[in-house]
Design a protein that fits this description.
three-stranded antiparallel β-sheet; single chain; 45% helix
């Protein structure tokens, strides 16, 4: 793989799960702040005695004009600074294996950024992402829609030209494109007319996990139960602490004396005090990551079988419950409906009837979820649905795009 193609690959891989961890390293005579990114950042966060600050899914804030940065250990970082810092970590790792990085790069982007309400917001997000990438020394930056990149990867398997629909399901967005691909298209040179249309919605796999937490986990930690409040009045256990469960690293925000004192007070008169006790233990033990790994495991198992047992055991927290695929599909039905509406909107906008689509190529982790696949089976028929390299096709397509751009 050429260095240019490798750049395209690594930038997309990182952009799909932007994780940055800051921690303080104490020495005999000084204290300094250090950072790590990606999976290594999660490892450092979990191993650190002093947890520091973990920031995840930064790309989701690119279109949000209200969020321009944050303070970490009394130093302010802009959003562009933090994304650039993650990229520098990744590029340093790449340089150790491949040598100096070139000055040109292809960067994947969603059709519509999360929190973008209009075209102006999308352009604002793109400009911020461009600023972050150029801060890393890149002089020429080309953006490509992620579903279009996936199409270039799929195209490598074709012996003839096709009109295809690509469904790319990332962590925060689901994106769709209808375009012509194939050996003749590549040979004559691609044109703007080959891409008939693209659309996207800010709903994807990250929206499924909170539904499992909300419906399966939180009730077994006390949400929805009651406690006795003076003067002898039963009230529901406050629900706001359970919202922190929906992002595993947000659980640390509850680990304060004030919050724990409130939960202990509620526990004393709770109808089911052992559930509140388990919740407090989960918070104090910083067990959010382990909990979410159990959630992801159950989600995966329900993608390949009709039922599973959700297991999370970390005494005194012990949850074991059979879960049916039908239950999960009921929980995520609003999100799936939004995805389906986006597909229909794209078909209407392009005027392409489903019968004209030769194949539907689905990629990304959530493309395995049966309820998601059913969107396309219902509209195009099972024989037209295909996939492959679901976790790497976009990155591979960006590498191919870079090769075409600068070959």
């Amino acid at each position: 793989m050429s260095s240019i193609a490798f750049d395209a690959y690594i930038v997309d891989t990182l952009m799909r799960d932007l994780i940055l961890h800051f921690e303080r390293v104490r020495r005999e005579s000084s204290t300094r702040t250090t950072s790590s990114a990606g999976p290594h950042g999660i490892e450092r966060y979990l191993q650190a005695e002093e947890k520091g600050r973990l920031i995840q899914s930064l790309k989701a804030y690119l279109a949000d004009r209200r969020f321009d940065g944050t303070a970490v250990f009394n130093r302010r970082y802009s959003l562009e600074d933090m994304i650039a810092l993650i990229l520098r970590h990744l590029l340093a790792d790449a340089a150790r294996s491949f040598g100096p990085m070139p000055s040109r790069v292809v960067v994947g982007r969603p059709v519509h950024f999360s929190n973008a309400r209009n075209e102006a917001d999308d352009e604002f997000a793109r400009s911020r992402l461009l600023a972050a990438v150029t801060r890393c020394g890149f002089e020429e930056v080309v953006f490509e829609y992620e579903p279009v990149a996936a199409a270039y990867s799929y195209e490598q398997t074709l012996q003839r030209d096709e009109l295809i629909l690509i469904g790319d399901f990332g962590g925060g967005t689901s994106d769709f494109s209808i375009l012509h691909v194939g050996p003749d298209v590549r040979r004559r040179g691609r044109t703007k007319q080959d891409i008939l249309g693209s659309d996207g919605v800010a709903v994807a796999g990250d929206a499924f996990d909170p539904q499992i937490i909300r419906n399966l986990v939180a009730p077994r930690l006390g949400m929805g139960s009651d406690y006795l409040s003076p003067p002898n009045k039963f009230l529901p256990v406050p629900s706001w602490p359970y919202e922190r469960l929906e992002r595993w690293h947000h659980l640390s925000f509850l680990n304060t004396a004030k919050n724990l004192e409130m939960l202990e007070r509620v526990k004393k008169t709770a109808v089911i005090p052992e559930r509140l006790e388990a919740f407090v233990h989960l918070i104090q033990g910083e067990l959010g990551y382990q909990l979410h790994e159990a959630v992801r495991r159950a989600k995966f198992e329900l993608s390949v079988q009709r039922e599973t047992v959700f297991e999370f055991n970390c005494a005194p927290v012990s949850i074991s419950k059979k879960v049916l695929r039908e239950e999960l599909e009921e929980w995520i039905e609003p999100e799936v409906r939004l995805m389906a509406a986006c597909v229909d909107r794209l078909l209407d906008a392009t005027g392409v009837p489903p019968s004209d689509i030769d194949h539907v190529f689905l990629t990304g982790g959530s493309s395995f979820v049966p309820a998601v696949r059913r969107i396309f089976v219902d509209r195009f028929g099972l024989p037209k649905i295909t996939g492959g390299e679901e976790l790497t096709s976009v990155a591979t397509g960006l590498a191919l795009r870079a090769d075409e751009q600068w070959a």
